[in-house]
Amino acid sequence: PYVLTEKNFFLYQEVTYPPEERGLQFGDGVYEVARIYQGKYFLLQEHIDRLYRSAEAIRLAVPFEKEELIDKLEQLREMNDVNEDAIVYLQVTRGSFPRTHAFPVENRPNLYAYIREMPRKLREIENGVRAILTRDVRWEYCYIKSLNLLPNVLAKQEATERGAFEAIFHRDGKITEGSSSNIFLVKGGKVYTHPATERILNGITRTKVKQFCDSLHIPFVEEAFSIEDIAKADEMFLTSTTSSIIPIIQVEEQLIAGGKPGEVTRKLQAAYEEAAGLAVKN
Ligand code: PMP
After folding, report:
1. To test ligand 1's pocket by mutation, which of 180, 205, 208, 243 has the most ligand atoms within 8 angstroms of CB?
2. Mean pLDDT for the stretch of residues 152-158
3. Which of 3, 111, 170, 203 shows its CA 20 to 30 Å from the CA of 252?
4. 245 CA to centre of ligand 1 in angstroms
5. Ligand 1 centroid distance, CA of 143 (Å)
6. For residue 280, is it within any domain?
7. Ligand 1 close to Cβ of residue 181 (< 6 A)
8. Are residues 105 and 149 in the same domain?
């Protein structure tokens, strides 16, 4: 497979970095993951826009103009002859320099992007998943999609070891988001989720769900809900680029909606499938 870098296209095995790479040593960089459905990018512009916002937030210059980067990603897709469901991973770091915390004087960022096949999580989408709760110990700039994912990694590992699909973060009794997803609660026909503050990553899928709610006349309330609210939830679901919309049917020991995906979740899933061109055609 081919990989795009700031210099050119290379074979996957050809892309190597020196030990003193700032992404490796400091997590000094930002990234994106975008979906490819049946060989076509989905919401790529939105992901690219967020990449530039993340980069700007850490005072990092992306080594391409937006349009140029999108062209190159299209080229990468063609070179890899991608026709199935996949993801593109893209990261930009502050480059390779002798180790010191402060920024290097020279502006020489590293970028790479690769595509990896990734089927839809159809079983989870259909049946729903279990989640655990874990304390949100992250920093105050979670709106930046930075490479520093250790709290997220530890949380997801805890979920995996406890047989759950996702770890839901809580801070001061309120749900913020998942280790790699946004979290939603449905109550009385309304959809609740944490507001897009600096405490969460404002998901591209989250933004789509907000639009779907608007067109379906489902009130979308950007208000954090509490751990106690979970016991009273009619439905819950999570969203992310790789997962799309997945029902949450259990949180810790608490069954949600009797352990079955709910009606509002199903409507939003249908809206997503239509938007992504995945709706079954007869
Ligand atoms: N929050 C976190 C912490 C994430 O890692 C992700 C996955 N990128 C999301 C939310 C969901 O964002 P998106 O819908 O853009 O994938």
Report:
1. 180
2. 98
3. 203
4. 12
5. 10
6. no
7. yes
8. no
Residue-wise pLDDT tens digits, 48-83: 999 999 999 999 999 999 999 999 999 999 999 999
Domain of 11: which CATH number?
A: 3.30.470.10
Helix (H, G, I), strand (E, B) or coil at 65: coil
Q: Is 204 in the pocket of ligand 1 (CB under 6 A)?
A: yes
Ligand 1 touching residue 243 (CB < 6 A): no
**pLDDT reported for residue 252:** 98
Determine if ligand 1 sits within 6 Å of the CB of residue 261: no
Number of domains in the chain: 2
> Residue 280's pLDDT band (boundaries 50, 70, 90)?
low
pLDDT surpassing 90 at residue 101: yes
Backbone φ, ψ for residue 110 (5° rounding): -100, 140
Q: Ligand 1 centre and the CA of 147: distance in Å?
A: 13
ipTM above 0.95, yes or no: yes
Q: What Å distances lie between residue 264 and 48, 237, 246, CA to CA?
A: 30, 10, 12
Mean pLDDT of 145-158: 98
Q: Which residues are catalytic?
A: 145
Atom of ligand 1 nearest to the CA of 177: 1
**Residues 173, 216 within the same domain:** yes
Q: Is there a single domain that holds both residue 77 and residue 150?
A: no
Sign of CA dihedral 136, 140, 144, 150: negative
- pLDDT of 279 reads 76
Please give the share of the chain, as a percent, with pLDDT higher than 90.
99
Structural domain including 224 reads: 122-275
Alpha carbon distance 24, 112 (integer Å):
14
Q: Is residue 88 part of a domain?
A: yes
In ligand 1, the atom with minimum distance to the C-alpha of 204 is: 15
- Angstrom distance (rounded) from CA 49 to CA 189: 32
Closest-CA residue, ligand 1 atom 2, reads 180
